[in-house]
Amino acid sequence: MRIVTSVAAMQRLAMEWNRRGVRAGLVPTMGYLHEGHMSLLRKARERVGNRGVVVASIYVNPTQFAPTEDLAHYPRDLARDKKLCRDAGVDVVFVPGDHQMYPSRHGAEFSTYVVEETLSRGMEGVSRPTHFRGVATAVAKLFNIIRPEVAVFGAKDFQQAAIVKRMARDLNFPVKIIVAPTVREADGLALSSRNRYLSAEERRQAVALWQGIQLARQTVRTSTRPIPASRLNSELKWLIETRPAARVDYIEFFDPETLQPVAKVQRGAQIALAVFVGKTRLIDNARI
Amino acid sequence: MRIVTSVAAMQRLAMEWNRRGVRAGLVPTMGYLHEGHMSLLRKARERVGNRGVVVASIYVNPTQFAPTEDLAHYPRDLARDKKLCRDAGVDVVFVPGDHQMYPSRHGAEFSTYVVEETLSRGMEGVSRPTHFRGVATAVAKLFNIIRPEVAVFGAKDFQQAAIVKRMARDLNFPVKIIVAPTVREADGLALSSRNRYLSAEERRQAVALWQGIQLARQTVRTSTRPIPASRLNSELKWLIETRPAARVDYIEFFDPETLQPVAKVQRGAQIALAVFVGKTRLIDNARI
Fold first, then answer.
1. How many angstroms separate the CA of residue A206 from the nearest CA in chain B?
2. Can you give the pTM of this predicted structure?
3. Which of these, A204, A282, B150, B284, has the minimum number of CB atoms within 10 Å of its CB?
């Protein structure tokens, strides 16, 4: 397994793969890897085969964090990440520093962003206004640096995956975007590097997100008619906030293609929610 | 010479070149080609050699025109353009339709833009607020569709060339950006497809831009000390507007790297100006 830290070296390697017809599969991560990431790496391997190369990028991208957010405290453990990547059969780990990704020469500071203007508006885009601009910019950079044939994203970040797909289509990146299912703990909590922020008690209460999703599903599936989104929303909020540490940021029901909110919820709609558990903001989503 | 009208076909061709190690040089144009474009095509050929391929794209990109601008009337003559390309030894002319470049499926409209936020602010960015967003987006698309090793832009659009260079650097496009000198008529008027809008009398008066540039050069070069930009600006405006059809939109003196205005003008500064001659808006620029 090769560790690459410079953009130029990574790009040379990618160009060589292009010339030799080697298929590359990319899994962009912010590190602190867990079983969810492992499932993305397996998916990438599946797509490029044993003669292809799997690249894991590990980069905590500053442009997708607001100044008030957890950039400085985002969990990092590169030694462990490398070991997990090696065990997962990753060919190249790309770990650029900030000076590599956002070089800042005096008078020529970084100034170009990729902005998706429709799908980014709701949900995470409301709570985190510059988040998706940062994500789209970093992903566009990684696509140009690594030139993968496929890139695999997790379904846990549903809106992000939709935006990356839209970006790839709109800007004609020749990259197939794969979205792999969310991996969950035994009690249903979606795996996330941020789960490590939770105290033992908060961890127990964090199952509220998954229980909310299940309540929504059950309510919709056992009803003979569509359920008003506002009613479902109130019920879920009530259920989730019976946990003393939990505070709902948003719960939304929407069309999984357009991300447009639906007034009445039926099978096939998507639910997404963000909940603070203590100081930790968790997200989850599922098809109803 | 091959004419390609679909994005998918162009991208397949580009991928094949990548695999075969064929170097591609791109000259993005809006068609209605003139000797300025021919010089860009020659430069592209120089860079990729006879075993490389030169691609001319011809596309009047709607996203870089404001609703009030001349999109509908922008001059077009595809038959003549093709002949000029063939004579210039172009290998592929890429002529996509709007439905190819900005496909619009209901509920999934085009929504991703590339935005440069520093160099775009002044000059053309003031007069044409969404212009460079459109340019950067279209150029990013062309880079992803054609995957050139080099792309050649004309120095006449100085700010555009600076923004494209910045975009390529910031988003890590593996494309070398070449800027080729402005080609001029015998009296100094910079070649532009928009010159065809000029009446015979306006055409005579249009030389005012070049005369203004020469006055600025002469004033600065014969002075022992830097000249206040505001004074030079007034003098040039006066000179240019002695022509009855000419009205100055802006005249700016700036650092050619950062595009930041300079208060005092000396050798090495850049001048750029935009002047309406009748209803036609012309631009020009030069190193002082």
1. 34
2. 0.96
3. A204
